[in-house]
Amino acid sequence: MMARVDAVVTTVRRGHKYTEANRRLAAETAERLGIPNVPRGSDSLGDLRVRYGVGNVLVARSGRLTLDTASGELFFHPGMSHLRIKNLMRGQGDHLVAALDLRAGMHVLDCTLGTGADAIVESYAVGETGRVTALESSPLIAAVIGDGLAHATGDNYDMHAAMRRIIVHAADALTYLREQQDDSYDVVYFDPMFRRPLHESAGMNALRARADMRALTPETVAEARRVARRRVVMKERRESGEFERLGFFEVVGGKYSRVSYGVMK
């Protein structure tokens, strides 16, 4: 049974060409998450949070989902993934793709969907014959980013197709890993939330407010090693001490990059 989701869903105030799409999306989201679908009326989103005693409001606007929180608004945006894919198309490298050693046809388990940018790059790298399954422990983040991946248009056909191929599950990583068979994925990837953010923005603040801030545990890493045929990879600050704590003794990444990748084979 899904735990109570601290949110309601509504639509934008004024009708326009997306009115029916917004109503349908709000109704489907409410049913899927088991939350109230409430009328907007003339209320502000802050008013709705107070009226219904929730911290979050999912909003169906222009046929897409956004998440309004007291910390800011979260919406799907591919971020730097389009530039990273263009670089891959030109034959240039990508640190994540190299760390995961991705090739066409591989099956990837991304345990920390977040904004979805890394999952898009992974999906492009493994191609049409590959598969990326992405987990997100927050049902609200999974709803917004999953909706964006399923419906947003990509920068080009290859990016568009990569987004559509990603399978999103609202699930806790350890719980999901425990349910998988040995060697059921080629690689397992973790990108835990940094304790000190690299970037401040309304969207990232909203993401951090809803994200799972727990540190990665040795038990989760052990389950990932059981599930991964080839390797387990974690993204972190090199100086954080997390690589050493969890046993990632091979650390790779750009010389001037603010983040690195721990690799466990």
Plain-language structure description:
The protein has 265 residues and is of the alpha/beta class. It folds into 2 domains: 7-70, no CATH class; 80-264, Rossmann fold (3-Layer(aba) Sandwich). The chain is built from 11 helices and 11 strands. The chain has helices spanning 19-33, 45-52, 81-89, 95-100, 117-126, 139-151, 157-165, 173-178, 202-210, 218-227, 242-246, and strands at residues 8-11, 56-61, 64-69, 72-75, 107-110, 131-136, 167-170, 185-190, 228-236, 250-252, 260-264. Strands 7-6-5-8-9-11-10 form a 7-stranded mixed sheet. Helix 3 (81-89) runs parallel beside helix 5 and helix 5 (117-126) crosses helix 7. The longest helix has 15 residues, at 19-33. It starts with 7 loop residues before the first strand and ends with a strand. The model has no long low-confidence stretch (mean pLDDT 91).
**Broad shape:** globular
Major pleated sheet:
7 strands, mixed
Secondary structure tally, helices? 11
Average pLDDT works out at 91
Please estimate the helix content.
25-40%
Spans of at least 5 consecutive residues with low confidence: none
User: How many domains make up the 3D coordinates?
Assistant: 2
Series of secondary-structure elements, N-terminal to C-terminal? EHHEEEHHEHEHHEHEHHEHEE
The end-to-end span amounts to 35 Å
Regarding CATH, which class of the largest domain?
Alpha Beta
Radius of gyration: 19 Å
